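Homework help board

Subject: predicted structure for assignment chain

Our instructor gave us this sequence and asked us to write out the predicted structure in token form, then describe one feature. I got the tokens but I'm not sure how to describe them. Can anyone check?
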Amino acid sequence: MDDKILLKLAFFISSLGMALLLFFSYTEEVPLFSLGAVHGGMLDQTVRVQGNVFSVRSYGSVTSLVLEDEQSRLNVVFFEDLDVKKGSVVEVIGTVGLYQDTLQIVGDTLSSRET
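My token output:
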């Protein structure tokens, strides 16, 4: 085969591989956990949880939520000012962490869920 054709073919295949890697990295689903299933052994892991907003507190650009489900409650903190109402059902994707020896999730995304 001609070197130019081989070079073009190699470039095309490597570009296709990079595009597929990029696509699959964005479509990887974050696992859903119940609030009670989140534990200290999961520190620094990204998780997805759903629950009812039990309480909301805002401190300037920090919003602190307590989520609850049928069995547990869990603290979630966002480092941004959010408009969230007590009693709403939400889904959070974030990183498991500790604050003052209490388990919490540092939220990345928050979305409302239909009840």
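Reply (TA_rk): Your tokens look well-formed. For the description, you could write something like this. Residues 1-29 form one domain. That's the kind of observation they're looking for.
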